[in-house]
């Protein structure tokens, strides 16, 4: 049996489709007798609203916008797999944008996704984002947003992160226990949440093992390892110190591989001259030369938990007085690059 439409009801009752539509929405513009007539006929004919028309009316698109720095990064591609696996099963489509660590790109991506009426956003901040107005404004207007990995302190919402402090602490402690005394730290811009957390873990490990913290051993790469000349300059500065480092703890995928490339170019032997531990999810860490000791984040799980929190916000907006910050454990996988001396 064909499903009955608003047009069919209008024809049968000799009314306009807009009158029938308004009557079914219980609009005050339609007089009570007409409303009753339409309602009773719709009930008798077993009328059901069209789900596509309903989604337009409720302005629920069943889609989620995701803005991440870049897809060609193992951590973020695993994050997306986690997001999509849950979203798909819960009936949501995922629209993915890359900010390429540009603030302007991030704002443009956000505006476009909002114009396409996504139901909510999942965001990992660009490394060059210091102004958060584009997100604060949307949240005040009721758009659900959940942040993951690189999260803003100033915005109250759900956040899903890796335990950056513990990961960095373990990495630094491992280098100290391997006999290293001058451990440098190559990292991203200081205002990113995971930069400050990893720096704090690194400092704490030095302090707990009675090693002095030396600011000249910490290099902040504005572009987070994407620009070869920036990596080269940072490592050259480290190597030119009166007492160059005997180990480097790197804070991300790109910084880790960039650092190894520069050291190999300079014919510096890893780990004999300089040991390396990287914060990285690259799948080929064991194929690098030498195989890389790495702090691995539970990226897939982070993506799954973030999207679950976002869909909860979308579907039950009134039930979310309490926001959660979920911090997931990292793991240290030891290979040759941090070799014991």
From TrEMBL:
SUPFAM superfamilies named in the record: lambda repressor-like DNA-binding domains, Periplasmic binding protein-like I
Residues annotated as domain HTH lacI-type: 4-58
Superkingdom, natural source: Bacteria
InterPro entries hit by this protein: HTH_LacI (IPR000843), LacI/GalR-like_sensor (IPR046335), Lambda_DNA-bd_dom_sf (IPR010982), Peripla_BP_I (IPR028082)
A matching Pfam family: LacI
Record key words, sorted: DNA-binding, Transcription, Transcription regulation
Keyword Flavoprotein: no
Entry-linked PANTHER family: HTH-TYPE TRANSCRIPTIONAL REGULATOR GALS (PTHR30146:SF109), LACI-RELATED TRANSCRIPTIONAL REPRESSOR (PTHR30146)
Name of the protein described by the UniProt record: Catabolite control protein A
Natural source organism: Dyadobacter linearis
């Amino acid at each position: 049996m064909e499903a009955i439409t608003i047009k069919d009801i209008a024809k049968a009752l000799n009314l306009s489709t807009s009158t029938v539509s308004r009557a079914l929405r219980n609009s005050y513009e339609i007089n009570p007798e007409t409303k009753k007539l339409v309602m009773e006929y719709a009930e008798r004919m077993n009328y059901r609203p069209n789900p596509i028309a309903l989604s337009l009316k409720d302005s629920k698109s069943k889609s989620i916008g995701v803005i991440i720095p870049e897809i060609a990064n193992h951590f973020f591609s695993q994050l997306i797999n986690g997001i999509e696996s849950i979203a798909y099963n819960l009936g949501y489509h995922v629209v993915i944008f890359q900010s390429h660590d540009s603030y302007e790109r991030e704002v443009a991506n956000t505006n476009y996704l909002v114009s396409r009426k996504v139901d909510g956003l999942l965001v990992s901040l660009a490394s060059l984002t210091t102004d958060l107005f584009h997100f604060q404004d949307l949240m005040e207007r009721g758009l659900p947003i959940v942040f993951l990995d690189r999260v803003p302190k100033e915005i109250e919402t759900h956040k899903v992160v890796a335990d950056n402090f513990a990961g960095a602490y373990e990495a630094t402690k491992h280098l100290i226990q391997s006999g290293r005394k001058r451990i440098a730290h190559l990292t991203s811009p200081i205002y990113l949440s995971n930069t400050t957390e990893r720096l704090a873990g690194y400092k704490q490990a030095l302090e707990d093992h009675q090693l002095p913290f030396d600011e000249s051993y910490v290099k902040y790469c504005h572009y987070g390892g994407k620009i070869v000349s920036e990596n080269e300059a940072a490592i050259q500065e480290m190597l030119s110190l009166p007492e160059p480092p005997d180990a480097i703890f790197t804070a991300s995928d790109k910084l880790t591989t960039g650092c190894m490339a520069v050291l190999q170019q300079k014919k510096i032997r890893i780990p004999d001259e300089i040991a390396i531990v990287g914060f990285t999810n690259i799948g080929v860490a064991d194929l690098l030369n030498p195989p890389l000791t790495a702090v691995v984040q539970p990226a897939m799980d982070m993506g799954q938990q973030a999207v679950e929190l976002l869909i909860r916000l979308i579907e039950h907006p009134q039930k979310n007085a309490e926001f959660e910050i979920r911090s997931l454990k990292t793991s240290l996988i030891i290979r040759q690059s941090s070799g014991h001396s």
